[in-house]
Amino acid sequence: MDxxxxxxxxxxxxxxxVHVPDWLDTGRQRELIEACRAWxxxxxxxxxxxxxxxxTMTSRxxxxxxxxxxxxxxxxxxxxxxxxxxxxxEWLGELGRRAVADAFGGGDALGGDDALGxxxxxxxxxxxxxxxxxxxxxxxxRDSDEKCDAPVVSLSLGxxxxxxxxxxxxxxxxxxxxxxxSGDLFVFGGPARxxxxxxxxVHAGTAxxxxxxxxxxxxxxxxxxxxxx
Length: 229
Prior knowledge:
Blueprint: E1 11-14, E2 17-20, H1 26-39, E3 47-50, E4 56-64, E5 67-69, E6 72-74, H2 90-104, E7 126-132, E8 138-141, E9 152-158, E10 160-165, E11 176-180, E12 185-188, E13 197-203, E14 216-222
Antiparallel strand pairs: 1-2, 2-12, 3-4, 4-7, 5-6, 7-14, 8-13, 9-12, 9-14, 10-11, 10-13
């Protein structure tokens, strides 16, 4: 919106979980969208994720650094074309570190084994890029396949969505629904690192027209804690 009756501001949704509206300016959003388009091209491009039970996720995904599949990581697209996963760019890791610092208020969240910084401030080395069309959604799940507790960084591009942030015990209530718009940042670590979360719906047609994007892109950055091979 051009004007807000109640301007959006940084919000701690739960201990360790922070929403920062409008964190990415329009220029940086365009840069990320163009990068996502390049990453989505084959080989190791955008794919439909199939679950062990035989279902499929309604969002489509491409990975950088390490390839995620239910429920592990590999260096090749083991559930797709078998190609080597695309590299994780250094600038994206720097963006993740800056996101954590901005969300949590400085360097304390970045170092050591403190509540938010994660084990030994491990570097970000995974990006999961999910593309949502108007009918896509994401069920409640936890990001628990990593061997590192560094905060998860989530960047939204394009259409707005309902982001449901829950508890660490189950997919059921209590949870909080947050509207994520293009350019918004959401970071969760510390006591919220293993909270269940999902996207029950996307608000189609809400992407800023200057981005030239139909649908929603979510760029999620994680630190794997895995050995570099």
